[in-house]
């Protein structure tokens, strides 16, 4: 398969880089945790319970939503790894061999994880900063399902979930944001603790326990109990807008005080990506971050800004092995990663 066909087949709609404020915000995600009232929670349920959940959810959405049912037991480890890398399922769901399933839309902007930590994790993804719009879409899907099933809900505590931290609204909203200016000006170490004091959490691109590769961070709410959905979205949106403003100021300062050094860094990174024959994940993400910054600042004008969104997914181990058609050792992945990036940049320049 050619790289162009592979990209067209494998990229999701949220990677397009066309959403609001997409020069800084890569994507928005909203996730709702829900459980059925008449079935044991996943921590103690049996296979028959899990099967019942899958059948009920699939039946509830099949007539009103165009989603494909994927059972984890039917997928290979590589296929599940690719779904994790595309943010469509969690690592926890990927580890489920008998109970887990996912319902995914063709554009991959909707993913309903079934029998993970909760019976349902309704997830919607959007390009750029679209918190309210993404929440509205998640609530629409939630309403469709609730027409057919009864959720575990308490008038005082709200939606009941497998983990106490999700009780209440069951809402986790997150924004994936590119902050090279704040990192290069050494402000992030001061900003992260301040964000945490506001009830939000800062993580890497794959959530809890992951590394902030390529100056990309996930900002999400930490509290779901005692706050309304509107409050959670408003609080997160306010912090993201403040970060965007500070990031723009940091970029302006870099251009004003260190323009030639910044330009040199950007084009050195572009040169590494364009010519390397072997490249590790950390170096690839650092260089991709620099190039994306160069695109946003106008230094590089012949490359689409969606390239960071695409390549941060396509250069992950699962995707590299899928493109190669089989398992690869770590050194082989580094070679494949370099070749894929070179070919992608050349394809962009040719177009």
From TrEMBL:
Q: Which domain of life is it from?
A: Bacteria
Q: Which GO terms describe its cellular component?
A: extracellular space
Activity regulation comment: Appears to be allosterically activated by the binding of pArg-containing polypeptides to the pArg-binding pocket localized in the C-terminal domain of McsB.
Instruction: Enumerate the SUPFAM superfamilies for this protein.
Output: Glutamine synthetase/guanido kinase (SSF55931)
| Keyword terms of this UniProt record | Allosteric enzyme, ATP-binding, Kinase, Nucleotide-binding, Transferase
Where can the motif RDXXRA motif of the pArg binding pocket involved in allosteric regulation be found? 333-338
Which transformation does this protein catalyse, written as a reaction?
L-arginyl-[protein] + ATP = N(omega)-phospho-L-arginyl-[protein] + ADP + H(+)
Q: Where is the Phosphagen kinase C-terminal domain?
A: 24-250
Task: Read off the PROSITE patterns from this record.
Answer: PHOSPHAGEN_KINASE (PS00112), PHOSPHAGEN_KINASE_C (PS51510)
Care to name a GO molecular-function term for this sequence? protein arginine kinase activity
> Mind telling me which CDD domains this protein's record contains?
bacterial_phosphagen_kinase
Xref: HAMAP family:
Prot_Arg_kinase
Alphabetical list of NCBIfam families matching this protein: PRK01059.1-4, PRK01059.1-5
User: Any idea what job this protein has?
Assistant: Catalyzes the specific phosphorylation of arginine residues in a large number of proteins. Is part of the bacterial stress response system. Protein arginine phosphorylation has a physiologically important role and is involved in the regulation of many critical cellular processes, such as protein homeostasis, motility, competence, and stringent and stress responses, by regulating gene expression and protein activity.
Per its record, how is this protein called by name? Protein-arginine kinase
Query: Organism source for this protein?
Result: Domibacillus antri
Q: What is the lineage of its organism?
A: Bacteria, Bacillati, Bacillota, Bacilli, Bacillales
Encoding gene (name):
mcsB
């Amino acid at each position: 398969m050619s790289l162009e066909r592979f990209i067209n087949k494998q990229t999701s709609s949220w990677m397009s880089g066309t959403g609001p404020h997409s020069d800084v915000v890569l994507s928005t995600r909203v996730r709702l945790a829900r459980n059925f009232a008449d079935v044991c929670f996943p921590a103690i349920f049996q296979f028959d319970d899990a099967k019942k959940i899958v059948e009920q959810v699939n039946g509830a959405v099949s007539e009103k939503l165009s989603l494909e049912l994927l059972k984890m037991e039917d997928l290979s480890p590589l296929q599940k790894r690719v779904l994790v890398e595309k943010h469509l399922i969690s690592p926890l769901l990927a580890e489920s061999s008998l109970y887990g399933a996912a319902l995914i839309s063709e554009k991959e902007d909707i993913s309903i994880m079934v029998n993970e930590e909760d019976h349902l994790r309704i997830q919607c993804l959007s390009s750029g900063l679209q918190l309210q719009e993404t929440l509205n879409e998640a609530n629409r899907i939630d309403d469709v399902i609730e027409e057919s099933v009864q959720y575990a809900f308490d008038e005082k505590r709200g939606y009941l979930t497998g983990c106490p931290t999700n009780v209440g609204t069951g809402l986790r909203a997150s924004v994936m944001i590119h902050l090279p200016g704040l990192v290069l000006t050494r402000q992030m170490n001061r900003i992260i603790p301040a964000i945490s004091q506001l009830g939000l959490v800062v993580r890497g691109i794959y959530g809890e326990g992951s590394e902030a590769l390529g100056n990309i961070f996930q900002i999400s709410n930490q509290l779901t109990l005692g706050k309304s959905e509107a409050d959670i979205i408003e609080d997160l949106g306010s912090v993201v807008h403040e970060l965007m403003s500070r990031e723009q100021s940091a970029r302006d300062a870099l251009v004003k005080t260190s323009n030639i050094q910044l330009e040199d860094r950007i084009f050195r990174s572009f040169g590494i990506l364009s010519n390397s024959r072997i490249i590790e994940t950390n170096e690839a993400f650092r260089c991709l971050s620099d190039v994306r910054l160069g695109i946003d600042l106008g230094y590089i004008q012949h490359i689409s800004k969606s390239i960071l969104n695409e390549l941060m997914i396509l250069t992950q181990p699962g995707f590299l092995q899928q493109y190669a058609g089989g398992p690869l050792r770590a050194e082989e992945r580094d070679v494949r990663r370099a070749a894929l990036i070179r070919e992608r940049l050349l394809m962009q320049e040719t177009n």
